[in-house]
Design brief:
Urease, subunit C, domain 1; TIM Barrel; four-stranded parallel sheet; 16 helices; single chain; globular; 19 strands
């Protein structure tokens, strides 16, 4: 009998393998961070595990992959509501950016990752563009390491040089600073089993043409992805037309930036020819339905993208525009948004939406070979889902239940890289209560210092004292 790290037994297994097998009374053997075997009770006779997880009456899914977030925005949750994108930015994120420090970013990232894991997310790509002082990227990666999530730091660059004096950032980075930090972080995490790095240019107006060309050269050299906000609103194309006399996506194509390692975020205002360009270059898409609805940005052409074979993944976006890192809400919204917009209930069925949250995310990150499904040889990123709760029971179809009738309370246990980070609803890696209180304290301090606050019924809402 071979000794291994962990075995899950008596599970109702949604494998997401090529055959999309659903296996009742199944076992999963895990060792050294990988799935060693998937089968029945015969595995109990073959392997002796240090940890045995009895999943009787529960379902096991592959962990969800969220391909876009701004974890620092956790501290701005709920502020600047009921506005369009640029008005929202100018009334929340941009006003507070210069007041972020290391402690604030660390607890923002830790709290955001905690939310993500509680809703079944095992991999998150964080688009980190807050750099008012040096060193804040390292606060995010430290949070990744401390909580145990599989994290990809999207090292971003945003041009803050034009901010007015009252909100000016202490440090104004250059494009060269951006590339230097990308190389530093990539070297630091090159061999890390869970933490990685990619490049995240802010938006079309944040970089020069030479900067975009250098990005492609750097991505090819270091073999890391590029991810970018793209046509979330008509403002992208308006800027590109005014400065380059062509739309955003044709301009990026002409610069040679697009490719199979390019993850385009939002993609709401796509023209027919843009879809063909994405298909041609195998560009990946990160669909963020909740933030698109909050900011009234519009509805992305997801069904058409899927028909053309374009890889689509799901993401929460930042908590300043979505208010949460709850991936279960995103999965449900991704399905319902297309149904109501097209008045077609057959669009985006539960099975297709779960595929976007798992295999779609793996494909977007170029990780199909080791993430996204429960198969031997893949990384052991797994969630144990208890369908018997007031929100979801009675259950007839666990896949449909996951998409339409559940909450984070249903997520009981989460394994990432084979390690149990959430066990029976409690974190094994961090002090959850301390994290929440620290996040609340620092968020209140940030809002007060930045002069932020919402107005309800014509009056500014007083701060909440805890």
């Amino acid at each position: 009998m071979k000794k291994i790290d962990t075995i899950i037994k008596n599970a109702y297994l949604i494998t997401m393998n090529q055959a999309r097998d659903i296996l009742p009374n199944a076992c999963v053997a895990v060792d050294s961070g990988k799935i060693l075997a998937v089968g029945g009770d015969e595995l109990l006779a073959q392997y002796q595990a240090d940890t045995v997880i009895d999943a009787a009456g529960k379902c096991v899914f592959p962990g969800f992959i969220s391909t876009h977030s701004h974890l620092f925005q956790t501290m701005l949750k709920g502020l600047g509501r009921d506005k369009f994108l640029l008005d929202w930015l100018n009334s929340s994120v941009r006003v507070a950016l210069h007041n972020f420090d290391e402690e604030t970013v660390y607890y923002a990232a830790l709290h955001g990752c905690m939310e993500a894991i509680r809703s079944g997310t095992t991999t998150i790509l964080d688009y980190m563009y807050a750099h008012p002082i040096p060193g804040l990227d390292d606060c995010v990666t430290r949070a990744f390491e401390d909580i145990g999530i599989r994290g990809i730091l999207g090292r971003a660059f945003t041009n803050v040089g034009s901010f007015p004096p009252e909100i000016a950032c202490p440090t104004v980075e250059t494009e060269q600073d951006f590339f230097d930090n990308v190389r530093r972080l990539e070297k630091q995490y090159r061999a890390h089993p869970r933490v990685g790095v990619c490049m995240a240019p802010g938006i079309i107006w944040d970089h020069t043409d030479d900067g975009f060309r250098e990005m492609r050269r750097t991505a090819d050299e270091l073999r890391i992805p590029i991810t970018m906000h793209l046509v979330e609103t008509p403002d992208d194309d308006a800027f590109s037309q005014a400065h380059y006399h062509e739309d955003t996506i044709p301009h990026l194509e002409r610069l040679g930036v697009l490719g199979p390692d390019f993850i385009a975020v939002h993609c709401v205002y796509m023209k027919d020819e843009d879809l063909e360009t994405f298909r041609k270059y195998d560009v990946k898409v990160s669909h963020n339905p909740n933030s698109n609805m909050v900011l009234a940005s519009g509805v992305a052409r997801i069904p058409e993208m899927l028909e053309k074979g374009i890889a689509v993944s799901l993401a929460c976006d930042g908590s300043a525009s979505n208010d949460t890192q709850n991936m279960l809400e995103v999965i449900k919204a991704a399905s319902l948004m297309q149904k109501v917009y097209h008045r077609n209930p057959s669009l985006m069925p539960a099975s297709a939406t779960v595929e976007l949250a798992t295999l779609g995310g793996a494909r977007a990150l170029g990780r199909e070979r080791d993430l996204g499904s429960i198969e031997p040889g893949k990384r052991a990123d797994l969630i144990v889902f208890d369908p018997l709760s007031p929100f979801s029971a009675p259950v007839h179809d666990p896949v449909s239940t996951l998409v339409y009738a559940c909450s984070p309370d249903n997520i009981k246990t989460v394994l990432i890289e084979g390690k149990v980070v959430l066990k029976d609803g409690r974190f094994t890696t961090i002090d959850e209560e301390k994290t929440i209180w620290q996040a609340q304290r620092l968020a209140a301090k940030l809002a007060e210092k930045s002069g932020l606050g919402n107005v309800q019924w014509g009056r500014k809402v007083p701060p909440l004292s805890l």
